[in-house]
Amino acid sequence: MKTLLFSPITSGFCTNRYQTFIRNLLPHFFIVTDFKYIQSYFNHDHLIYFEQPSVSKSFLLNSYQHEFEYCYQRLTDISSHYNIEISSSDLPTIEDHFVRMISRYHSVKTLFEHHKEISMMFLCPTEGFLIDLAKKAEVKTIFLEHAPNFFPTQLLGNSSQHFIPFHTQLPDYIVSENNITSLFWNNLIDQQQSNTQLINSGLPLDSSNYKLTSPPATNPPHLTITIFNTWLHPTSPEQVLKGPLQLLDLMDNLFESLSLLQKRHGIYIILKNHPEIESNAYQNETFYLDLGEKYKLRNFSIMNDFSTALTTCDIALVLNASSVLTDLLYLKIPSIIYKLNPLSDLSQNDEINELFPSVSSIESLQTLLENFCAIPKSLENEKIKMTEILARYNVKPKSLNQKCNDLINQLNIISP
Amino acid sequence: MKDNAGVQYYRINGQFDNALEKFLSLPKDERCHVMIDIAFIYYSKQDYHLSLTYFLTYLSKTKITSVNNLVCFLATKLLLHFPNHPILNDILPALPNHTYHLAPVGPFKIKSFNLCHYPRLNYIFSGHCPHCTHTFEINTSMSFIVNFRSPCPKCFQTYEFKSEDIKMFIDQLNNTFLFNQSPVKPETDTFNYNFLDSMLNKHFSTCLSTVFLRSKNK
Question: What is the ipTM of this complex?
Answer without folding.
Answer: 0.88
